[in-house]
Amino acid sequence: MKQCVRVTSLFIVFSLVVGISYGQVFDSVLRKLDTQFPQEKLYLQFDKSAYNPGETIWFKAYLLSSNYPSDISHTIYAELVNEDGKVIEKKNAPVFRYCAASSFELPTDLSGSAVYVRAYTRWMLNFDSSFLFVKGFPLIGAKKKSAKAVAAQQAYAVQFFPEGGDLIESVPSRVAFKAIDQNGYPIPVTGEIQDSKGKVVADFKSVHDGMGFFRFTPQPGEEYKSKWKDVKGQSHETILPAIMKDGATIETNSVESGIQFIVRRPATQQTDNQYQLVAQMQQQLVYRAKVNLSAKTEVSAILPIENLASGILQLTLFTNDGKPIAERIVFVNKQDYYFITDLNAAAKNFSPRAKNVLQINVPDTIIGSLSVAVTDADINPAIRDDDDIFSSVLLTSDIKGYVHHPAYYFASDADSVSAHLDLVMMTNGWRRFKWEEVLAGHWPLIKFKPDNYLAIEGSIRGLNKNDLKTRDISAILQPKNGGKQIVSIPIEQDGRFELPDLLFFDSLKLFYQLNDDKDKVLTSRANFDISSNLMREFVSVPIPKSKDLYILRPDSITMMKSRLAAQKYLDQQRKVQTLAAVEVTAKQKSAKQKLEEKYTSGLFSGDGNTFVPDDDPSALGAQDVFTYLQGKVAGLQISTVGGQVSLTWRGGSPSLFLDEMQQQDPSLLQSTPMSNVALIKVFRPPFMGAMGGGSGGAIAVYTKKGGASNQDIKGLDFVNIAGYSPIKEFYSPDYEMDPAADKNDYRTTLYWNPYLLTDKANRKILLTFFNNDVTKKIRVVIEGMNADGKLTRMEKIFQ
């Protein structure tokens, strides 16, 4: 379940004697968290940043654990939620190469000012629900709620955060602050710190998004307050946190050789001044030091970072008996978290319905997965410093609190940006686990096991062990799009059974009975409880209120353009649907197109080499589908030795499907008579519809559907089994093939492709799409991740 550890642990002793007992405890606690309770996170890329009722939300999901591709879960769940917290629609999708994709259809009568997408895996539900991915979108052109809106009263506040956690008597301290309004948005602020006699001991002024810091040394017996002015020049007072008599502080600074940390204590402190400093990153111990302050009030050292990856590092100072007394999080930025993606327009033409070609180059040879969205830049403009794949994966998914304009912190490697990011670290906290809880042995309660791919599972009641002894379930699987597969399902002694590792969309019928059951005597007596392993319940947690702050609304002109474009598009769709209902003549589809519509579904309806044996005389002399395909597909190598088939394509082995059910053994396809084969589709590597990502491509064989092939099978009981959510194909017209395919074209998303896969043999990608009738400027956004957990993002405007 857990991947190999990729962060090198550094155990550094800071004195002659190591605290062995608690040193081992910290190590074992983190090791247990890492191996038994690994955390997953999701990032979703969307085609646009705002939507109208009736439009489609397209998305691509990236699944990570410890900031690397996750191999824990193989199914993701996504929910469309309205602003009242009601789940409108739910989707599930298989994870291939750590990614998944799907879409939501926004109802045309959807009301309110916002809509949310929430995504998670079943495994993520075992932990803090605030880690579930949530993204809010402005809902443009929707009917507003009838309830009268209550204007929020304007209010301002300043929060103070002593570095390490506490202010301690006579210990020099650095104090960060954050100034916000009633909505949590940052405001600029200036002020001063006064003691109980009104003496000014420090001045402060925000330097970035309401944040800043100041230094001062708290004195014994004093109380401190701040006097500050808001954006309107009005004066306020805020009391600083109470001063502690004993304890220790920790201060950190980024230096060329690593992270400098300084531990301080008051000179009058008489308690045991032995401490341990523990640093962890993504639940992995990376540093441990014994800090001896018996003879000194201050000690400093360097925590080396050359073997650490980029991300949030948590430093915690413990007393010798294991009590955490100070904590600081630091962002380690090695500039090693990304790979380069080049984007150029190979052909650019913004005339109505003109052809455009984009060229994407990925110099890296490591296997990667990209998604690309091409939209009308006037309707979907870039929003300054919105959350993106860098800021979400490395920052906002791991800390408490709202981060304003998170992408800003990854837009530049300037020292000023790094300093501003450190202010975010000082005014927020790590939230993945609490040291106090895990050191006390309070571990997360695991209610949900990680999802594998689809499984049919169930139990039998009403029969005893002797009735079930040596019996199996004889079953026939019949997907909704047709075809059949005969399987045998073993039964455990307690009556439970499972058929794992399936992959189908929409639904299938399972016809069943016990084997060797003459006249169905036992089958009729038994009660069968059969279903798929997909979650059926909704997540019963509210949308966090802070997520409202992430909704960045377009300006009024952009919203007007979006609303008008959406209205034209929906009006055109209604006309098309009306015409389709009354037209008696239409352009004839080819026999091959009709067969594909009849047999294929989901990812199998995508581009591939399609063969119809009944229309090919060479099929008459073929012994089986493999001899038929020999020499027909460039690069596909098929050989038969001693009756055993061997297939290779670009160094991999093609995945095999019979009626869209994946087969591990080629013999089932080999034994299918050619006279019973209706259609064969061959997909070039990689094929995302196969388990593991289909790096060797895929061969899908479809058997002929008889007149009654989709009817109930006589004499057998059956149950409908839910599969993965059907995949909607993004509509991209080809105006070279059919210049009048659409009477009016008002699409705002011109192209969406979540399945761009790269490797050492595929580093150059050409994408072709056609303009609509009105767009003069396009925005292209590419995001992605490779097998090493490196991220990429490229955004360009073409006009």
Descriptive report:
The structure is a single chain. The protein is 12% helix and 37% strand. The longest helix has 27 residues, at 556-582. Residues 1-20 and 579-586 have low confidence and may be disordered.
Would you summarize the structure shown here?
With 799 residues, the protein is mostly beta strands. It contains 10 helices and 45 strands.
Shape: globular
What share of the residues lie within helices? Answer: 10-25%
Determine the number of helices (DSSP H or I, runs of at least 4 residues). Answer: 10
**Biggest beta-sheet profile:** 5 strands, mixed
Briefly note the structural class of the backbone: mainly beta
Reconstruct the topology from this structure.
Blueprint: H1 20-36, E1 40-46, E2 56-65, E3 68-69, E4 75-82, E5 87-94, E6 99-105, E7 114-120, E8 133-138, E9 156-162, E10 167-168, E11 173-181, E12 190-194, E13 200-205, E14 211-216, E15 225-229, E16 235-239, E17 243-244, E18 249-255, E19 258-264, E20 274-281, E21 284-292, E22 298-304, E23 311-319, E24 324-332, E25 342-347, E26 355-361, E27 368-376, H2 389-396, H3 415-426, H4 435-439, E28 454-461, H5 465-468, E29 472-479, E30 485-490, E31 496-502, E32 507-514, H6 521-525, E33 527-532, H7 556-582, H8 591-599, E34 609-611, H9 625-629, E35 636-641, E36 644-649, E37 655-658, E38 661-663, H10 667-670, E39 677-683, E40 698-703, E41 717-722, E42 749-758, E43 764-770, E44 778-786, E45 791-798
